[in-house]
Amino acid sequence: MTTATRNRWAEHALGKLQAAGYRRGGARTAVVEALSRHDCAVTALELDDELRRRKVGRASIYRALEQLEQLGLLRRLEASRGVASYERIEPGGEHHHHAICSQCGRMIPFEDASLERAIHAVSDRMSFDAAEHEVTIRGRCDRCA
Amino acid sequence: MTTATRNRWAEHALGKLQAAGYRRGGARTAVVEALSRHDCAVTALELDDELRRRKVGRASIYRALEQLEQLGLLRRLEASRGVASYERIEPGGEHHHHAICSQCGRMIPFEDASLERAIHAVSDRMSFDAAEHEVTIRGRCDRCA
DNA sequence: ATGACTGCAAAGCCTTTGCACGCAA
DNA sequence: TTGCGTGCAAAGGCTTTGCAGTCAT
Description:
Two copies of one chain form a homodimer.
Chain A: H1 3-19, H2 26-36, E1 42-43, H3 44-52, H4 58-70, E2 74-78, E3 84-88, E4 97-101, E5 107-110, H5 113-126, E6 129-140
Parallel strand pairs in A: 4-6
Antiparallel strand pairs in A: 1-3, 2-3, 4-5
Helix pairs in contact in A: 1-2, 2-4, 3-4
The first copy, chain A, binds a DNA duplex (25 and 25 nucleotides) through helix 2 and helix 4.
């Protein structure tokens, strides 16, 4: 993941927000910038920590996350029990999935072409208009084994 | 999914609970029975509806679900936003995944052998001790398209 | 000037915990 | 008899909503 990729997402996101009729508010822009600094899933509360000093309210963070998700710019995941986390959706389609250690909570990203192929084949076969998909593997990581 | 399969799970679950040192309480048994009647994910609140007339408290349902999950008898999923749902883990290993319609919320189960193979290959390659995995496809179902 | 955007505080909702009573072993 | 199991009610924790002031357009 390069800096160029992150900026590409941020520009893409800001453009799409504008196209959707949203104004360029300070809080929302701060959320987009914060998200562009993360390469894996972040929770709303983690973003709140990062943005508190910039005087961004928690409610604005949740509102921005919801809008970004609606526009297909963010993927919402359940990281730990009952906590949502968010991850950029790259305009190019590149993405990864997660292996989560049940013991230490570590989240290990991975990608696999044949897994992607299998998923696409399934959605085609079901005549389901798939927009997103997520794969989560749970178990014990090598450090905890 | 046959009645025999459901009963197999219930017996398997009750046996494993006993082996883990749990007593055969009425509420827990009621939860196991209720779960054995569902072939796809159910939420705790749905179970609560079903078990209210049997005078089972909501807290007992949540407690039973957590114990069953710990023992590897149940898989916890996030169905709708912020709501957990639970699904039996069959002793035989057979299982399905879900396509969820973002518009109507319908949950369509599916299974695919090559998808399973790809997932196993990935976890082997990562030296991650995978106990469970879940695949969720999100988009628009054929009825809503 | 108009109405979207924002922060703060309050409310919501699912889930967990505390506690005293009841029941399994 | 012992202490796990249970129901009820209260507390928790993340997320959403209401509202009045502020800012983008």
